[in-house]
Each structure stands twice: as structure tokens, then as C-alpha cells.
Amino acid sequence: MKQNITRLAIVAGVLVAGAIATTTPASAIGGAAAGTGNPNDEPVHVDVLAPGRGDDAGLDGAGWFVDLSLEYRDGLAAAGFTGLQLTGPAAHNNIAPFPGTFSTGQDDRLPGLVVLTSTTSSTRPGFAGPGTNLANLFNLTGVTDRSEGAAEIWDTWLVGAAIAGEDVDTVLTVAVIDDLDGDGVFDDAPAVVPDADQDGVIDKHDLEEIGVASNIVTVPFHLNGAGA
Ligand SMILES: [Ca+2]
Ligand SMILES: [Ca+2]
Ligand SMILES: [Ca+2]
User: Fold this and answer.
1) Cis peptide before 25 (omega within 30 of 0)
2) Alpha helices in the chain (DSSP H)
């Protein structure tokens, strides 16, 4: 047990360090320009803190971060937030003190979130190409601000394998899906985003077709293929 706690502390330390070591939010330098109008009009506002546009991230296609700030205007219940999360592969998956499942698909803790890359593997087990919702691979989910009835959630993923390739240009796309079933909760993200507009590519236009509750942030960057 002591060993488990120590390991968790190490994981938490690494992830928190990553969360703090942010660069200029992508939306502040143009990321939100890919969105669907004034983000202040949307019930959810997404900021991508990492990666930054044009970054050359990672080791051998892994070891890069996706670090998000998600502000839900109507608070935690509307966000579908089901609890704090500290999770990961193998022995880290869904264990105390902050259990959460870890796989591709809809996140059990923040079930409206969609995270895509344009180069996501279609051959790794559980991965179905660029439409694969990567949200349930996030490691660390917590509540950073609850001012005025809103809820700001930070959500961080340390990418553990080259699931989007290496030495390749890619585009990260992040949004929160609309309340598709009308139950008042943003909890309707799909496991796999379909090519909804049938143009042969899965990207932000398909999210617009499905319906979003937030701005859509796109971040073009490079996955470094070199080792340490
Ligand atoms: Ca999860
Ligand atoms: Ca819903
Ligand atoms: Ca499409």
C-alpha cells in the first residue's frame, strides 16, 4: 500500500508539474479562431493550455501533454462531472483515491468532452483512427474555480504511447458536445466521432454537424520522433 501511495504521488507530481508548466493558451493566440463564433456566447468555454500551436512535442511520438481548461457556465451538474480523477494505464486504472476509467472513448468523469487528433492510429487496439474520442485517456481531472455558479475544470493527459504517430504533423481538436438528449447535462460525447458531413475527413466540421456546447479549438503541432 505504501508503495502504491508513493507511485501515485509520483504520478501526481509529474502531472501537476505538467499542468503548471503551461504555455500561452492556444485560444489566446488564435486557437479559438477555429471555433463557432464568440465563445462567450457558448455554455462551455475550452482553452487548450498545451500543446501550443507549432510546438514540436514529445519523445518518440509519446510523452506529450494535452492540458485543458474547461469552463462550464452552469456549474458542475450541467458539466456531467462525476468526480475527481487520477488514473492511467495498468495498475493506475480506476483505483483510489480518485478512481476513473482509462481507455479510448467517452470519459466517465467529464462525459461531454471530445478530444481528437488528425493522425490517431486505426490499428492499435481500441483505436479507430482520427474519429477516436481520446477523452477517457486523460489522467488528472480537478475543479479549479467555482465562482458565480460556474465551474472551471482542468483536465490533463500525459500521452504514454505514440497513438498519433511520430515525426508527423498533426492537429488536435477539442470541444464539448451539445446536450443531444436534452436532459440538461453535457454528457453526450460519442466514443467515435463519425464523418457526419461525409467529406471523407473527420475534423471540427463533423463536431459542428453533431452539435457543440463550446468553442472548438484546433491546434496544429508536430510530434517529435526522436528519443530523449
Ligand atoms: Ca476516465
Ligand atoms: Ca445530455
Ligand atoms: Ca467530415
Assistant:
1) no
2) 2-20, 75-79, 204-210
Nearest to 217 by CA among 8, 69, 7: 69
So where are the chain's domains? 2-223
User: Which ligand has the minimum distance to the alpha carbon of residue 182?
Assistant: 2
- What's the 179 CA to ligand 2 centre distance in angstroms? 4
For 207, the grid coordinates are 463536431
Taking the centre of ligand 2 as the mean of its atom positions, its distance from the CA of residue 98, in whole angstroms, is 24
- Kindly give the distance from the C-alpha atom of residue 199 to the centroid of ligand 1, in angstroms, as a whole number: 31
pTM, entire model: 0.84
Chain segment 1-18, per-residue pLDDT in tens: 444 444 444 444 444 444
Name the residue with cell 454537424. Answer: 209
Tens of pLDDT, residue by residue over 112-158, are 999 999 999 999 999 999 999 999 999 999 999 999 999 999 999 99
Q: How far, in Å, is the centroid of ligand 2 from the Cα of 80?
A: 8
The CA distance from 42 to 177, in Å, is 11
State how far Cα 74 lies from the chain centre.
20
CA separation for the pair 121, 108 (Å, rounded): 22
Do 196 and 180 form a contact (C-beta atoms < 8 A)? no
